[in-house]
Amino acid sequence: MKITDFIGEATEYDKKEMMEERKPRSWLKSVSAFANGIGGALIFGVSNDEILVGLMDARAVSEKISETIKTKMDPIPQVIMEIHTEDEKDFIILKVLPGQETPYYYVADGNRVAYVRVGNESIPADATALKRLVLRGTNMTYDSVVSSYALQDFSFTKLRSVYRVRTRAELTDSDFISFELADENGKLTNAGALLADEPPMRHSRLFCTRWYGLDKASGVIEALDDKEYSGSLVSLLQNGIEFVKNNTKKRWKKTGTGRIEMPEYPEQAVHEALVNALIHRDYMEIGSEVHIDIFDDRMEIYSPGGMFDGSIVQNLDTDNVASKRRNPVIADIFSRMHFMERRGSGFKKIKADYRRAVNYRNEVEPLFRSTPTSFFVTLYNLNYNVPIKKMGLSYENQAFNEEKTGFQEKKQAFEMLISSFNFSTPTKENIMKMYLHFGFDIVFARTDVMNVTGLTATPATELMRKLKNNELIEHVKGRGKYKFVELGE
Q1: Which of 4, 42, 83, 389 has a Cα-to-Cα distance from 294 of 20 to 30 A?
Q2: Which residues of the chain have pLDDT under 50?
Q3: Residues 165 and 281 reside in one and the same domain
Q4: Contact, 332 vs 340, CB < 8 A?
C-alpha cells in the first residue's frame, strides 16, 4: 500500500514532516486524541502540504518515538509502529489503537493534558469531555452513575403505568434496583432520575416545531405549531409521537378488500428515530435538547451527541452498524417496555419501513448524519410532490384530490394576498393557520377558529370580523358558519 492510499483510507490521521524531539507535544497530542477516541494513525515523513519527503534515519526515529511515548504518556497507549519504504524514501506509520483506560494524558512540565479529536485537529478536552473519558475508562456510563436524588422524593406515575400496560406486570421498588434505576441505598441513578415524572435534569426536553414551507423562514408565518415538552423520557416519547401525528396527514386508496393508508411518514420509522434520539443522546451536554422539525417535504430529528464510539455515521454502512449504546440502562428499560429491540437495529429498521411504503422511491431514502457532537436523522415526506393520479385512486377520489395537488400554488397566492392587507403580524399568522387548516372548502364557526388559533372568544370574534370586512370569508347560508372566499371569485 502506498502512503497516499493509506491517507485516503484512514478515518483519523495526522502527519508530521519529522519527529520533533524538543516539541513532543506537537505530535503526542495526536497520539493522546487518537487513544481517547476511535484510534488513528500518525505518519512521519509527510509535510503539511502532503509532499512525501521521507526520513533520514527511520529506525533511529522509531526508537525515539517509542521512548517518548513511554515517558510522556500516561497511561501508555497501545500502538503499532512500522517503517514503510516508498520511492526509496522511508516513512514511519504509527497506528494508535482506541484505548480502554481513558483518559490518556500527555504529561510534561508538571502538566497533564488529555486531548480529543475535533475534525482534523487535536485539542485539549474540556471538563465535559474529560468526564466522558473518565466514565469510559472506569467502564461506566452516564446513566448508570448514582445521583444525589432519593427514590422516595420522586414519583414515577407515567413510567409505572406505561410499564404495566406494555408488560402486564407491576414495576416494583425492587425492580428499580434490579434495572439499575436506583441503588440499594435508595439513591436514583441518572437513568432513574431521567424517568421520573418531574426529572431534576432540566435539560432533558423535547422541542417540536411544524414549520411553514421548506425552511425556517418561509414568509408571513414561520411556525404553524410549536411545542416544548419536559418530563419523563416516556412522556417525551409519547408527546413527540403525538406532535408528529397532529402535524402530518394521511392519504389513502381503495382496494378490493378495503383501503390502504399512505401516511407522509411511516409511523414505525418515526417512532424508531425518536426513540433513538431520546435514548442515545448525550445527557452530559447541558443546555441542549432533542428537536423535531417538520417541513413540507421532510422531518428532521436532532439529538445532542454524535456516534458513541466517535465514528461518523455517513462514513458507515448503516445496514451493518454494531450496536454501541451510550445509555445502556435507559436502553434496557425501554427494551423491557418493547419500545425498541435489544440488539439495536435502528438504522436498518428505519430504512426497511420506508422501503415497504407505497410511495417509496430512492430519493426519499432516510438520511443519517453525525458530527462529533450532534446526530441528525432526515425522514422525507413520502407524499410530497406525488400526483394523486399515480396512487391508483378511483376516478371519483382522484378528481377530488387532484384539486388539492395545486395546494402549494394556492397557498403561496393566498399568502401574497394576506401580505397586501394592513394586518398586524400576529393577525396574519392566525389567518394563515386558519387557511392551512380549513382551506377553501371546510366551513367553520368561532369555536373552530379558537381551536385552530388558540385565541379566546373575543379575539376570535374580532379576527372573524376583520376577515369578513375585508371580504376574505363569507357566510354559508343555512349553516351559521363561514368559509374562505375562493381566490378569483
Answers
A1: 389
A2: 392-405
A3: no
A4: no
